Amino acid sequence: GFISARLAQIPWLSKFQIINPQAPIVINKKEIVRADDSQDVINTINNVKPRLAAIVMVSGSTVNYSGNALAITADGSFVTTIGSFPQNGVTYAVALSDGRIAPITSQVLDPATELVFFKATISGLAVTNFTSVPSNVGDRVVFVEGTINQQSPVAYPTFVTNTQEENVNRTFNADNPSRVFGADIPAGLISGSSLVALNGDSLGIWS
Q: What long-range pairs does 14-19 form, CB within 8 A, spacing at least 24?
């Protein structure tokens, strides 16, 4: 109870995930209240859903899910990673949670980061808000994958395991320590999945 919650807040101990908070914790001298965060995750999914698109490969009447993307302008600009386009010479499209599907018309790759910016023939999009990295070990974050045929997005709740301060002396390719933090990565995560804060703002994209 009290001792476990206190230990879970110690940064050097938290990163070993021996005692990982399962929900936000409120501590005072007399009691601990562990809040139920299931509704927070549901709200997060609902917030990010209009901004998240599935990338699909289209061949005749066959549609195969290949990745995810985030809308960055209302008139059809998106960002994803190179892994969302596993094959060359095929037609790609974006599928939105409202059932709309639109062909991708152009792509630009940033070779330093492997981010891909692309345009699709679609408009009226909700635009992604990008936020700063979380600062506390144990902060709740959620990986969210896109949707096809108006299905609900798939969400993987997780926690921040180390902060940017713990990575200051490490070297990252095409990155900056001020934007680095650690989180548990679920197995089989699809390229372009969004890592979001509980308010629905995006923290980054999985590559």
A: 14/137, 14/138, 14/161, 14/162, 15/137, 15/161, 15/162, 15/166, 15/182, 17/161, 17/184
